[in-house]
Design a protein that fits this description.
This protein is mainly α. The protein has six helices and no strands. Helix 3 packs across helix 4.
């Protein structure tokens, strides 16, 4: 297993709030290394959402220092292009999947098979029971 992959696997297991707190406490010298690692993750296509969220968080926190550091210019340029590219790929995938699900739903409904109809019916029945229970308590 690659070291970058190992770090990603460990970072993925950390809760989002804890990861943000840890990134707040990182010294700037480690932030530089972490940004390079995030760039590698994006180029590899690993955990794009997590990597983008981390990049944006670090940019918000360390914006002034990042802008003032000239050695980060190539890394930031690469991060900018990679985040745009990878996020557009994710948007395309989500859009394609959503269109496919909507198509399937229309197909099933045209055959008189209502998707999630039994779930909606159960939810409506439970609402009626709750309303009647509230009325009897009054």
């Amino acid at each position: 297993m690659q070291p970058e992959r190992f770090v990603l696997d460990v970072f993925r297991k950390v809760r989002s709030s804890d990861a943000e707190e840890a990134m707040l406490l990182l010294p700037f010298s480690y932030v530089v290394h972490f940004l390079k690692l995030l760039d590698f993750w994006l180029k590899s296509g690993w955990e794009i959402e997590l990597a983008c969220r981390s990049v944006f968080f670090l940019l918000r926190i360390h914006h002034n220092q990042i802008v003032a550091t000239s050695k980060l210019l190539p890394v930031m340029d690469s991060l900018r292009s990679m985040t745009q590219t990878r996020l557009q790929e994710l948007r395309d995938t989500v859009g394609f999947n959503l269109a496919g699900m909507q198509f399937l739903q229309r197909e099933l409904e045209s055959r008189s098979i209502h998707l999630f109809a039994d779930v909606e019916e159960k939810r409506e029945n439970s609402r009626k029971r709750r309303r009647s229970a509230v009325r009897t308590l009054r």
